[in-house]
Amino acid sequence: MISDFIADPVFGVTLTLAAYFIGIIVxxxxxxxxxxxxxxxxxxxxxxxxxxxxxYDTYNRGGxxxxxxxxxxxxxxxxxxxxHQKLLKKxxxxxxxxxxxxxxxxxxxxxxxxxxTGAGHLFKISVISKSVTTPIAxxxxxxxGGAASLTVVFTILHGLVGGIFGPRLLDLLRVRSRLARGLxxxxxxxxxxxxxxxxxxxxxxALAGLAIGLMGFFTALAAPLLIQLIP
Amino acid sequence: MRLIKGLVIIFGCLLAGEFLAGYxxxxxxxxxxxxxxxxxxxxxxxxxxxxxxxxxxxxxxNLILLFVPLSVGIMRYFDLLAEEILxxxxxxxxxxxxxxxxxxxxxxxxxxxxx
Lengths: 231, 115
Prior knowledge:
The complex is a heterodimer of chains A (231) and B (115).
Chain A: H1 2-7, H2 9-30, H3 37-52, H4 56-67, H5 70-76, H6 78-83, H7 85-90, H8 92-117, H9 121-127, H10 134-144, H11 148-172, H12 178-200, H13 202-229
Chain B: H1 2-21, H2 30-44, H3 49-60, H4 63-72, H5 78-83, H6 85-114
Helix pairs in contact in B: 1-2, 1-3
């Protein structure tokens, strides 16, 4: 009876929405970047499942209905890119060369550092796209046969670190131009970096937004090829 | 009406992307191909921005919600993370800082050369 009720996808969907709702409230009330709504929702749901002994797979009957929407969400990323097309055309060389090199460097760093620390194959292919915006990163991981759950948590943490410390790191590196700052924030910390870049200036936010889509595209191209070279 | 039209376009791009993913020689995920198709459609004027704007906002305004169920799946990987703790720290944190250093400096240099 109660198990039938929990096995209904409505259970997973409702639990996700409720936990995320609480996450947003906590985030707004505290104003702390560390209490990101996704992390709060993750902790709440995981704690609930562990306490009640409900399996992840049971919860995920509803959860996967929400995950499914990441597909169209990725397609929709083309819309903000299109809106900033003028900026892209004006600075095409810097933006294209920068994001392409950044994407290759990001993949290589995971593979080489992973080789150094003896990381397992599953771990490497799951975090190879961690600098990329989460919906695209999940697509890349699925294509490579990795664990999308690891991808999601690593990409969000990446985004958080950049969102919080990114501008300070850029100051340390003496990167001062708006173009370079905006691009770097988007390349390294995707959506969360973009939100922070937007706080600095609208142009930096737009550049970060462009960098997100391009970084995702180039990483999707580079990751499967490079992983064959450095197993 | 416009929202539905936008959803048809977005899902149409996704479907076409998923289909093409099996045929093109690159290992691009179908959703990324769908993104490229929508971008090409918008840039060429074949798709009007007003048609997809509202539907796009529906997904992008609440994007973080869509990651929540996958993120909860991390609870199945606690053992793996404990085993790979060295890689988690080095690949995660050191990798991040190195990539930041590389990207920030590179884009800055490219930008100076360009202007």
